[in-house]
Amino acid sequence: NLSGIIMGVETSCDDTCVALLTTEGKILSSEVSSQYAIHNPFGGIKPNHAARAHEANLPFVMGNPFPSNFFSQSVESALKKAGMKDLSLVSGVAVTRGPGLRGSLEVGLAFVKQLCREHNLPLLPVHHLEAHALTVRLPQRETSTTSGREAEPVEFPYITVLVSGGHSQLLLCEGVMKYRLLGGTVDDSLGESYDKVARLLGMTYEEGGKGLEKLAVEGDPQRYKLPRPLYKVKKSCDWSFSGLKNAVNLLLASIREEEGIPKEANMVQTSRKTAADIAACFQNTALEHIITSTERGIDYCTINLDVQPESVVVCGGVASNERLRGMLREMAKRKQMKIHYPPVRLCTDNAVMVAWAAIEGMRAGNIDIIRPEEARFDEV
Ligand code: KG4
Ligand code: ZN
């Protein structure tokens, strides 16, 4: 077991993240460099650009050959904010080994390998989804803006609704490295469907799900009837979102035709009320679908697995959605369960969760503490 300070590095997608954490779980610093400015013009992530940006952003410690005023220099600023001059107090480096974009993962891993070699530190490979799922067990979480019971320690077993841009899974977490997949998406992730609908309405990649949520607040969720995904499948805890997105696309086409709005016109700018109603209807349908499967998953645990999870936990980027939090809170009340959500900045990708998952793994005695040359990445 390592004691002292663990550095976390996360580069699975388009955020370059570095954090420093004590092994007790105290957050010393957490840097997140977003790449919106790079990907916005493409309306989505360009994997090659993402990898290059991670490359430019991370390697100051190795003598970054690309001085850049565009990015914060992640490792340097993480050390600085933690009040540290160098890596002498760091006892290990945790890094996301996957799943994620191949190029992005490779850059992060190559960087951490070199860092560990140069400073003679052990490398701690972490699964990205496990990191999301364990965030809620961090002892020193700041309180979130939404009321809830965030301050209480979350004990196993709990149900995790893991909804991000890359993944959507319903998990029963019984312990560190003990997860049961109850259901998941059969096509798009929830975040992806938010992003796609946001784009259909004319929003930028940066606005994405967050922008859609904001717009939906102004809308009437009853105005349009959208098909409920997997409505006829009564025994599954799975999710599906691509049909819903298609339905929004078709609805949008017919509204454009009726109202004489050209195909290229930005819906949010041309007819904000209509765009807001569509956003609200989409959100309502998607989130009700999330709740139905989650409730079914909880019943499955009680009836078929004889496990009574005490709490519901929501994590991943979409977990910052206030409407989702509210609906899950209602559901938890019905089920007489507790509800927990990490603060927003720990819901979206960050390196605190990566370092913390490594610490949990060490405590439970089931993480590989390896030499850097042994590190491999997983793409899926
Ligand atoms: O966990 P995350 O930062 O990255 C992945 O691992 O994918 O999640 C990003 C996703 C994006 O799809 C983004 O649109 C979505 O989370 N998202 C939201 C909200 N904030 C972020 N979706 C709905 N409502 C939000 N408030
Ligand atoms: Zn993520």
TrEMBL record:
Q: What is this protein called?
A: N(6)-L-threonylcarbamoyladenine synthase
Superkingdom per UniProt: Eukaryota
Gene Ontology, cellular component aspect: mitochondrion
Originating organism: Planoprotostelium fungivorum
- Biological process GO terms, please? tRNA threonylcarbamoyladenosine modification
List the keywords (alphabetical).
Acyltransferase, Metal-binding, Mitochondrion, Transferase, tRNA processing
Q: Which residues of the full protein are shown?
A: 75 to 454 of 503
Main localization is mitochondrion
What sort of enzyme, by top EC class, is this? transferase
